[in-house]
Amino acid sequence: MPIEEQVVVVYAGTQGYLDKVGIPDVRRYEKELLDFMRLRYKDLLKNIAEKKELNQEITATLKTALQDFTEKFK
Asked: What total number of domains does the chain contain?
């Protein structure tokens, strides 16, 4: 898994976005999240890969993406 995708998954897990996801659904959440990110936030993934840091702009966009995805995840 590319480092930028690892960053997204680890950030989601450590910042509480998975708190309401049942254990049996975690793998599906991860897969669907990465599909969502590749489709709708490919520029964000590219920025994470290029800058190799979570600056304020990247973090704000990442939070928006995770909130959007997590609210719709069922």
From this structure: 1
Q: What residue numbers bound the domain in which 24 lies?
A: 3-72
- Phi–psi pair at 65, nearest 5 degrees: -60, -45
pLDDT in tens, 22-66: 999 999 999 999 999 999 999 999 999 999 999 999 999 999 999
Q: What angle do CA 26, 30, 32 make, to 5 degrees?
A: 115
Whole-model pTM over 0.70: yes
Residue with tokens 């898994």, as numbered in its chain: 1
Question: Cβ–Cβ contacts within 10 Å for residue 22, how many?
Answer: 9
HEC profile of 16-35: CCCCCCCHHHHHHHHHHHHH
